UniProtKB/TrEMBL annotation:
Compartments in which it is found: Cytoplasm
Species of origin: Methanoculleus formosensis
Name the UniProt record assigns to this protein: ATP phosphoribosyltransferase
HAMAP family from the UniProt entry: HisG_Long
Residue ranges occupied by any Histidine biosynthesis HisG C-terminal domain in the UniProt entry: 224-297
Catalysed reactions, as listed in the record: 1-(5-phospho-beta-D-ribosyl)-ATP + diphosphate = 5-phospho-alpha-D-ribose 1-diphosphate + ATP
Length: 300
């Protein structure tokens, strides 16, 4: 195993260092996004790697825990970082949010045991509140002028009320499964979080061109998510009926079919969730030779 070469703490002017989660819930989807954007990580392997090159010699990837990424970006150790908005807020890091990656959606909630007589945040005055997010929790209760004792935990927060460690929790919820399984109910919402791309403010100026290239690549993958490409041949007489059925980004594209003057080719970008219904509708309207293709990226 080659020793990692000694690196300057801050990436030089010609290099953009992007910090992404090495593990945890969003690590998988972010790795997939990076691959689909065409960046492609140079070295495969386990989540023990720390820094790796990409297909672009001017972009390298730094692997880190989601909670550490905001400060890596704020300090300039990384020019860019992908983590949850909740992590950025918990650290209070001075970074610029460049892109919402529309994944990793979760709500930070205040929850109490189902049998608790607590109904509102004000009812928690003098209570103990367990959380992985002490800074956000403190600010929330201060905004409500409610004095609580915050108990900071590293995870698995839902067990604390049943262990007598806390009266309430402030924790992330997305499907709500963990709360229900642990017989907890939500009494208020603190914030909603999604996974975001954040930038070091100085890097955003000094490396604008390279960062814009990266944002364009990531954005094109996000825009293509849930979309697919429909192609079909239609008799001219049926074209009006088929066009009525097809939405498309800016209306379907209609082209001549060289081998048959009576036919036209109709192409459209459609939502994957509509394909089943659309195919039956265009078929009834007279389309044939219908093809459905995945879309990797859409660049406007
Ligand atoms: N249940 C969830 N649903 C959606 N997104 C979530 C959920 N839990 C965490 N996240 C998001 O994933 C990001 C990283 O959280 P995650 O819990 O994966 O990291 P971690 O807590 O450091 O790792 P681990 O959970 O293994 O301790 C957070 O910024 C958060 O916004
Ligand atoms: O609403 P749900 O879909 O059930 O998800 C909520 C759970 O997800 C997070 O846990 P995570 O998996 O990150 O483990 P952790 O608590 O150890 O961070 C969060 O802390 C909740 O426990
Ligand atoms: Mg977690």
């Amino acid at each position: 195993m080659s020793k990692p070469s000694p690196r300057q703490p801050v990436p030089g002017p010609g290099l953009v260092r992007l910090a992404i989660p090495n593990k945890g819930r969003i690590a998988g989807p972010i790795n997939e996004l990076i691959e689909k954007s065409g960046l492609h990580l140079a070295e495969g392997g386990s989540d023990r790697r720390l820094i790796t090159r990409t297909r672009d010699p001017n972009v390298e990837i730094l692997f880190a825990r989601p909670i550490d990424i905001p400060e890596y970006v704020a300090s300039g150790v990384a020019d860019l970082g992908i983590t949850g908005k909740d992590m950025v807020m918990e650290r209070g890091s001075v970074v610029e949010e460049v892109l919402d990656l529309q994944t990793g959606k979760a709500t930070l909630v205040v929850a109490v045991p189902e049998e608790s007589d607590v109904e509102t945040v004000a009812d928690l005055a003098g209570a103990k509140v367990a959380t992985e997010f002490p800074a956000i929790t403190r600010a929330f209760f201060d905004r409500h002028n409610v004095a609580v004792t915050i108990v900071t935990v590293g995870g698995a927060c839902e067990a604390t009320p049943h262990l007598g460690i806390a009266d309430a929790i402030v924790d992330l919820s997305s499907s709500g499964t963990t709360l229900r399984t642990n017989h907890l109910r939500v009494i208020d919402e603190v914030l909603t979080s999604t996974t975001v791309l954040v930038a070091n403010p100085a890097s955003l100026t000094a490396k604008r061109e390279k960062i814009d290239e990266l944002v364009l690549a990531l954005e094109s993958v996000i825009r293509a998510k849930g979309q697919c490409y429909l192609m079909m041949n239609v008799h001219r007489s049926a074209l009006a009926d088929v066009r009525e059925v097809l939405p498309g980004l800016s209306g379907p594209t209609v082209m001549e079919v060289a081998s048959d003057q009576n036919l036209v080719a109709v192409h459209a970008v459609v939502k994957e969730e509509r394909v089943y219904q659309l195919i039956n509708q265009v078929k009834r309207a007279g389309a044939k030779d219908i093809l459905v293709m995945p879309i990797e990226r859409i660049i406007r």
